[in-house]
Q: What sequence folds into this?
């Protein structure tokens, strides 16, 4: 998904690699396909890439079940344009769109080109697709950190403090304090210069997501967020967030999933349970479900995990769980648990999985 998003947003193909173990990898295209919902419409974007060139690219509207073509482009052939686009757009715009799609070099991504050149016949549909990848899709890697965490903490400090305290992390509160050290010793000069000359009043320091630069009448000041603990004598001890455990920091960087109320999101999280206790992972999932059920926002959470305990109880339906199985040539396949009709969606699900009835288990012959 990261690779596909980069194709859409940047129009670059040089980072696409064939499957390293596939015997056909060097002779067949790498195919990507993504179906998503945006503004009440169901869109499907597909692209096939081979040796840094586009083999085929299409955007289809499948809202009403039957696919309505927006464009279907294969370099060297006439670009196909949907009848709806042709009927709703001026003739000169349609001719330009077809000519653009037909003559575009095979190293160029048509969707990205539409956005760059503002090709009007396709623009409204292409914008929906482009914005979904740019704004709705949020990919969180196992070791990634939220870049804008400092701003999140500044605007929702009480919510983050309460969430950490309720999760029994030991953190009783979060506090911002102004740093007395020379700012030029803490922040690279080029960042300071750009910030001074910009219209932005608050900046997250790139190498420290808990530190912010702020402008006021006296100039620029630096503030930093700390976790607060109460000592036995009633005094308060402040700890830099960088000194917290991996689990506390991981949970802190996952909290925007629950607290970000700016827009609809699809979250893709790699290793949701990394450094987290099972109970905390379950709590995160339950809280996410409550937000979805409240219809406060349109959200979806897709994550990978090695914590099989999350399969217990009513956390998920069978069709929401997919097992990864590796074949004899080391290619991974996804198998839906809904395919196993004889297994009940309760605690038997985890038991059946651990018994090896669904695949996806390591074949371990020894301990070392």
A:
């Amino acid at each position: 998904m990261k690779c596909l998003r980069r194709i859409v947003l940047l129009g670059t193909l040089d980072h696409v690699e064939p499957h390293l173990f596939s015997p056909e990898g060097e002779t067949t295209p790498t195919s990507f396909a993504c179906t998503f919902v945006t503004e009440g419409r169901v869109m499907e974007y597909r692209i096939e890439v081979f040796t840094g060139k586009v083999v085929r690219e299409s955007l289809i509207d499948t809202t009403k079940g039957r696919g309505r073509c927006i464009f279907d482009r294969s370099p060297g052939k006439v670009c196909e344009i949907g009848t709806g686009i042709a009927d709703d757009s001026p003739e000169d715009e349609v001719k330009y769109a077809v000519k653009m799609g037909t003559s575009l070099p095979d190293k160029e991504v048509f969707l990205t080109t539409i956005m760059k050149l503002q090709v009007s016949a396709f623009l409204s549909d292409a914008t929906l697709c482009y914005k979904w990848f740019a704004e709705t899709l949020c990919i969180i890697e196992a070791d990634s950190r939220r870049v804008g965490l400092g701003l999140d903490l500044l605007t929702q400090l009480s919510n983050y403090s309460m969430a950490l305290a309720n999760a029994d992390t030991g953190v009783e509160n979060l506090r911002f304090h102004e740093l007395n050290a020379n700012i030029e010793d803490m922040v690279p000069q080029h960042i300071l210069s750009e910030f001074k000359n910009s219209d932005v009043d608050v900046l997250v320091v790139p190498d420290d997501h808990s530190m912010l630069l702020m402008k006021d009448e006296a100039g620029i000041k630096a503030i930093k967020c700390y976790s607060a603990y109460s000592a036995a004598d009633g005094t308060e001890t402040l700890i830099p967030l960088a000194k917290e455990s991996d689990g506390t920091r991981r949970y802190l960087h996952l909290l925007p999933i629950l607290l970000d109320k700016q827009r609809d999101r699809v979250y893709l999280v790699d290793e949701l349970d990394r450094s987290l206790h099972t109970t905390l992972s379950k709590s995160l999932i339950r809280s996410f479900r409550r937000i979805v059920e409240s219809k406060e926002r349109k959200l979806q959470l897709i994550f990978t995990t090695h914590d099989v305990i999350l399969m217990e109880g009513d956390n998920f339906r069978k069709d929401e769980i997919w097992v990864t199985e590796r074949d004899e040539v080391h290619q991974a396949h996804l198998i839906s648990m809904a395919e196993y009709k004889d297994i009940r969606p309760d605690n038997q699900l985890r038991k059946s999985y651990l018994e090896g009835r669904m695949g996806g288990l390591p074949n371990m012959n020894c301990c070392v």
In short: Residues 120-136 form the longest helix (17 residues). Residues 184 and 192 are 8 Å apart (CA to CA).
